[in-house]
Amino acid sequence: MQDLLDYAKKNGITLQHEGNCQFCGAKVSQGVWECLSNINHIAELLDFNNPIYYVTRFLSVDAMALQHCEIHGPWNNHIHLTRLFLIFEKNVAWDYSKTPQLSNIINHYKKNKSEFLTPPPPTKKAD
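Given the sequence above, the corresponding structure tokens read:
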């Protein structure tokens, strides 16, 4: 994961503590800082010891990583989208032991390949 300050500087984005998220354009009031902290608030609300919410941990992480894929790096898009596909479309009961397996498969897949799930350009101005 790259540092969000470095990413903003490289892309000419001025980070502010007010307004919409300067990266994804989400309607928040305190900019990218609030947008990125929202995932922590979601985690606080869910009891991950309850089996009903167990898979929610992965869904929350995948959603956040895909919403801010510019920070996590383009190959992470493949991991998070594949995991969501396996959970929703193939009904795989996901647990922590499967993530390293998926990562190894993606690493093998990406040899001699060009990354093609590039994120949209960052939002430089809030609407």
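The longest helix spans residues 51-67. Try to locate this feature in the token string yourself.
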